[in-house]
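Quick one: structure for this chain?
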Amino acid sequence: MIKQAKLSDVITERLESMIIEGKLIAGEKLLPERELAGQFKVSRPSLREAIQNLQAKGLIERKQGGGTYVSQHLNRRLSDPLLELISKRPETQFDLLEFRHSLEGMAAFYAALRGNKDDHSALVKALDALQSESVKSNPTAEALALGEFYFAMAKASQNMVLVQVMQAMRTMLEDNVKQNLDMLRTGANVEDELAQQRSDIVKAIVAGNPNAARDASHLHLSFIEKTLLDINQNNASVQRSLRRIVSNS
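Got it. Here's what it folds into:
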């Protein structure tokens, strides 16, 4: 005779799935117990037991008088001080861009292959947020908004490993985006091209064309790489010219 699964174990698995799929992220506060029990249509004692299961596994943590949260330490191994140090080194800027080709190209491909209407809506909403004047005038806000855009694309891929890797490396990727934006603004006027490229990625995803979505993502990142390299080369030429002027004066 097949033993029926315990209700609290079923709730535990559902909450675990929400964490794996990125529907609940590290540091996020869970709904109050009454609301969460209503959402799952279960009794509060069963929900409470599921919460205790997750707490025992280190997936969630309770704060005295402050509610229940997804553990901040879930992504510790992928966001440790070493990775933070790497992200701050100027010479790693292009290494990260190369890595983003794989990460975002894969996300775009599978988002187009598997994304549903809700995924598309979230992606379009994230893209629209980038056009806000308050975002465009603030590099830090723009980097965070771009992080949300790429994370929405990862979630649309419905690849749980990809979602977790993207979430774990999100701060480092946002730092890379901000560095790129700062440099682009000092040496090139490419805002319209970048906006169009991101729009092309979303259009391919919504149209359900995986190859076009991946190609659009690669084109976008290649354009950023080339533009940054040109700026670096121009800056180096200017520095050499200045050194010659000073040495001849």
